[in-house]
User: Which sequence fits this backbone?
């Protein structure tokens, strides 16, 4: 049930309620009403048919560097 | 962008080499193995499947807590859900995990094979579609889930109102995670040293949803789900034990923000009210359940779809109630892996793909080192 | 060699070392020799290939077209499926050579040693790979003597060491083209050209080298470098540690030969595939990504035909893991190398016993009856009618169909064929992969009765519900025909017509919704000539451009190509490499 997976937004529908997304090539439709404004090309976390957050690419890239830093300091 | 970096074996090995000496030292200081709890079913599976739980086991007892919403649903709720299925004019729509959960007398799958209209859906939205296709019948959607799932269900309530649906109902057994955690903290017999907080619940409630733990000075981190995320979570938790002042650290910033998802929070407040709710194992916890808001009372299955009141009885020998609290491990249950297996589950913890028992059955039985006492 | 000749006359089985490995050989004309070979090789039903002395002999006993003759005589010397003339059954025990099949695989001698096996009397031999069951072909003298002891009566070996083993290739003519079903000796390691994504930046592009490792059955792998795809030879089913080591060894061999190392490795996300697990467990593989099975099939056919625009894919195969975690296999999809979308598919049908029961098509037969029967009584009546010999196992199967015991659901064309084959009592137990389906489709290979040439419109009913085809009514009608003693050939033909009609409808829906006119066929079920020709014709009449596999197998032997090309295109379009949820296995 808790199958949250990052998927790429391909197209946001006009009503801003749904979007077409791509997960490893499989395209399907999810709800995006829980997100303020999502753009094609962004990655979202999907849970039970709804996108619940936009993936912060910068933070994702920083992640590993951050861990190493924190381990040294913490 | 390569998120696979969070699974990089070489980096994992390096980080573990860095962390291990700390774990050894802190274990020495504390005088026993560290006891951390993960409070999210997906984390339970991730720790077991990746082998991190086992890898940590010389230093850390990683205990699985109430992470699976199906497992903490009380027997009376399960029986009520099954009762809906027995009504002629009702279609029950549910997430897959609920199908085999044993009620006191039956389960949804058995009801289905006896002719009940029970359908598995992947989202509440799908349930709305089914309701639209069958206007003359009532559709009851079984709302089981934590803060991650509830917003989607809330959206379905809004949609039902927007589209003026007359036959869509939700039975809400949704629960909030922090009250369960708080209860476990109050339990002095539990001796928990820290928590790995649920990553995706935190996406919704934000780090701020856990900040009250800082007042209790409890080590807590919000962790991600890839192998490196898991390792870091344990490493940082352990280090926190050496500090006098602890804070709730967000180690999953790629999706968890300080404020969480404000839209989702707003919608939850609009469609649900926090109420006392009975949990399996915990009993009634204050402010721990999401009941349907009075504004949406027309869609509340609990009051609008009448069934006979089912009589609940406990499953003999089943220790799910203690297992969801982390007080007992699956291996402590006499039925585990003998009578109660994934093909023949006796309790919800073995049914759900994120239940502690089914996770341990699949991933923890080959290791002799897993001892959670 | 005189010892050889006399041995062959005396029904001996000889292990002969050829160019790609050891063949087990016997006199094809002697029934007992062939039976003996079946027993010793533990291969009760899977067809044996024959080697003929020369093309004259072939022409005398088999029907052969120009296309088939060209393929047969080519330097690659593949095994070609041919229809025997009536004369052939007088000299060759066809039913033992290829039980249940109307065609026989024939090849010509492709090395001087093979030529020497024939003399005035011996003009037909059985030539099958010398191996332990489910292991790759043996190619080393010592191994041969050790492992084939008790199987071969005589060993004819030489001292030219075989560095890389390779099986024979197999193909058939469809619609005037020679199509490879197994691509191996004679064709590998020739490269295939594939379309590249257009990179908008200036300057020369550094294309990463991509390795697609294939799936599980009839596996191959594919190394993609710049615009060339090197597809490996047929390796076999990767279900044991040995077969996996075999694949890894060949991968190393290729990488050394071509001096290439993959930057990106592509796997199938099926959680149980050994090769997928192996790739994820290795610590230094570079980047890994996942491409879904049927997406890879579609892409393989696109790549082979040089297509780089979106297509409608008709993907019909036995089994493959789908994005929703269930097993797919009868799909109309639209998409390109980047992504795909499901348009229409066969309803999910319970597979009693799970993947293990694939060897027992009668169980699938009962499952199909369950879809069609109006009530329990009817189901039981039909089940007893079709499968009286399995009555004692009905309770377990019914329990699975009722959902009381867990079993997966599959939307698979291959399993549909299996079930119908069993219902028609053509094959209720498969002794090799795809046997039931193959025996069913072979029925249509040799109809001489003109009454059998019914119109395409003569078919069974089916329903389209949402994005799904429901086949309950089709099965019900098949049962009616069966009870009225309609001939098996007729029923089979009508079934094929129904499937073609379903596909036509689905493809039309795809065109309406997506504006695409090009169609690709991929998946092992398309090796069925009748279905392929029929469906192609229907689609072309409706204005579609249809593309099929020719040089690359339509079955799982082509998956690796699709994986590699999709992996490259997705990589170059900046898709995040995240593996899949299922792939988060043990890292320690």
Assistant:
């Amino acid at each position: 049930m808790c199958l949250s997976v990052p998927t790429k937004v391909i197209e946001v529908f006009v009503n801003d309620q749904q979007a077409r997304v791509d997960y490893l090539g499989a395209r399907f439709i999810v709800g995006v009403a829980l997100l303020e404004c999502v753009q094609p090309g962004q990655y979202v976390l999907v849970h039970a048919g709804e996108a619940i957050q936009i993936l912060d690419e910068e933070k994702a890239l920083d992640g590993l560097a951050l861990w190493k830093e924190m381990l040294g300091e913490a | 962008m390569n998120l696979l970096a969070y699974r990089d074996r070489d980096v994992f090995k390096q980080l573990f080499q860095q962390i291990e000496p700390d774990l050894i030292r802190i274990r020495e200081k504390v005088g026993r193995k560290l006891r951390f709890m993960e409070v999210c079913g997906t984390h339970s599976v991730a720790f077991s499947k990746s082998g991190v739980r086992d890898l940590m086991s010389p230093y850390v007892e990683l205990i699985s807590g109430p992470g699976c919403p199906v497992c903490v649903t009380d027997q009376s709720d399960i029986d009520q859900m099954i009762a809906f299925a027995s009504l002629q004019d009702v279609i029950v729509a549910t997430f897959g995990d609920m199908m085999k959960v044993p009620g006191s007398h039956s389960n949804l799958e058995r009801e289905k094979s006896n002719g009940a209209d029970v359908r598995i859906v992947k989202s509440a939205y799908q349930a709305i579609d089914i309701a639209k296709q069958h206007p003359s019948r009532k559709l009851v959607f079984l709302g089981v889930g934590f803060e991650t799932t509830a917003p989607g269900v809330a959206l379905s309530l809004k949609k039902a109102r927007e589209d003026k649906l007359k036959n869509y109902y939700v039975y809400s057994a949704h629960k909030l995670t922090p009250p369960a955690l708080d209860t476990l903290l109050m339990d002095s017999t539990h001796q928990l040293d820290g928590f790995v907080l649920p990553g995706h619940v935190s996406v919704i409630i934000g780090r701020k949803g856990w900040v009250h733990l800082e007042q209790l000075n409890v080590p807590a981190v919000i962790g991600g789900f890839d192998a490196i995320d898991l390792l870091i979570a344990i490493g940082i938790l352990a280090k926190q034990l050496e500090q006098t002042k602890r804070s709730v650290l967000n180690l999953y910033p790629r999706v968890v923000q300080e404020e969480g998802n404000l839209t989702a929070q707003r919608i939850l407040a609009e469609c649900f009210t926090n109420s006392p709710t009975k949990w399996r194992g915990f009993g009634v916890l204050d402010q721990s359940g999401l009941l349907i808001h009075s504004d949406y009372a027309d869609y509340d299955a609990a009051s609008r779809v009448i069934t006979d009141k089912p009589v609940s009885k406990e499953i003999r020998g089943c220790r799910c109630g203690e297992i969801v609290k982390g007080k007992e491990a699956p291996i402590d249950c006499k039925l585990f892996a003998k009578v109660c297996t994934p093909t023949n589950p006796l309790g919800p913890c073995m049914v759900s793909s994120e239940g502690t028992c089914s996770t341990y059955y699949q991933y923890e039985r080959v290791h002799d080192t897993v001892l959670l006492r | 060699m005189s010892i050889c000749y006399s041995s062959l006359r005396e029904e001996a089985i000889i292990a002969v070392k050829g160019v790609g490995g050891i063949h087990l050989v016997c006199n094809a004309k002697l029934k007992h020799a062939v039976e003996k070979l079946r027993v010793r090789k533990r291969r009760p039903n899977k067809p044996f290939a024959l080697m003929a002395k020369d093309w004259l002999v072939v022409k005398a006993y088999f029907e052969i077209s120009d296309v088939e003759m060209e393929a047969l005589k080519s330097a690659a010397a593949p095994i070609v499926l041919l229809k025997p003339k009536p004369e052939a059954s007088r000299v060759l025990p066809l039913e033992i050579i290829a039980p249940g099949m109307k065609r026989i695989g024939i090849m010509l001698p492709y090395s001087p040693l093979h030529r020497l096996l024939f003399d005035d009397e011996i003009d037909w031999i059985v030539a099958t790979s010398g191996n332990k069951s489910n292991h790759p072909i043996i190619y080393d003298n010592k191994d041969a003597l050790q492992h084939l002891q008790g199987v071969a009566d005589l060993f004819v070996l030489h001292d030219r060491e075989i560095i890389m083993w390779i099986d024979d290739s197999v193909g058939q003519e469809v619609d005037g083209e020679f199509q490879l079903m197994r691509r191996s000796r004679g064709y590998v390691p020739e490269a295939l050209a594939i379309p590249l994504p257009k990179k908008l930046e200036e300057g020369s592009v550094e294309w990463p080298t991509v390795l697609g490792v294939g799936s599980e059955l009839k596996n191959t792998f594919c190394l993609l470098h710049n615009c060339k795809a090197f597809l490996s030879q047929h390796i076999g089913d990767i279900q044991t540690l040995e077969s996996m080591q075999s694949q890894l060894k060949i991968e190393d061999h290729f990488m050394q030969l071509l001096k290439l190392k993959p930057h990106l490795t592509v796997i199938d996300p099926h959680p149980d595939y050994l090769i997928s697990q192996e790739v994820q467990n290795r610590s230094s593989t570079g980047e890994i990504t996942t491409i879904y099975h049927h997406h890879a099939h579609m892409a393989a056919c696109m790549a082979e035909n040089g297509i780089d625009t979106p297509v409608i894919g008709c993907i019909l195969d036995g089994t493959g893991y789908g994005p929703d975690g269930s097993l797919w296999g009868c799909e109309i999809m639209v998409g390109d190398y980047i992504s795909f979308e499901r348009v229409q598919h066969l309803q999910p049908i319970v597979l009693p016993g799970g993947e293990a029961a694939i060897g027992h098509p009668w169980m699938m037969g009962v499952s199909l009856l369950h879809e069609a029967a109006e009530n329990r009584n009817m189901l039981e009546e039909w089940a007893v009618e079709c499968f009286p010999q399995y009555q004692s196992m009905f309770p377990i199967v019914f329990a699975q169909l009722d959902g009381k015991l867990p079993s997966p659901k599959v939307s698979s064309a291959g399993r549909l064929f299996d079930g119908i084959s069993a219902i028609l009592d053509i094959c209720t137990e498969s002794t090799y992969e795809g046997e039931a389906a193959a025996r069913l489709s072979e029925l249509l290979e040799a109809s001489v009765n003109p009454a059998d040439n019914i119109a395409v419109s003569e078919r069974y009913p089916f329903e389209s519900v949402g994005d799904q085809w429901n086949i309950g009514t089709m099965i019900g009608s098949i049962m009616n025909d069966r009870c009225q003693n309609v001939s098996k050939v007729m029923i089979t033909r009508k079934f094929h017509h129904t499937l073609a009609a379903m596909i036509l409808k689905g493809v039309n829906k795809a065109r309406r919704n997506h504006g695409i006119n090009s169609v690709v066929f991929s998946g092992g079920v398309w090796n069925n000539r009748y279905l392929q020709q029929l469906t192609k014709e229907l689609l072309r009449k409706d204005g579609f451009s249809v593309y099929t596999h020719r040089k690359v197998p339509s079955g799982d032997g082509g998956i690796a190509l699709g994986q590699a090309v999709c992996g490259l295109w997705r990589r170059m379009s900046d898709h995040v490499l995240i593996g899949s949820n299922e792939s988060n296995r043990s890292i320690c």
Summary: The longest strand of chain B covers residues 283-292. Residues 320-372 of chain B form one domain. The interface with chain C takes residues 1-4, 7, 9-10, 12-13, 46, 49-52, 54-55, 109-110, 112-113, 122, 225-227, 342-343 of chain B (CB under 8 Å).
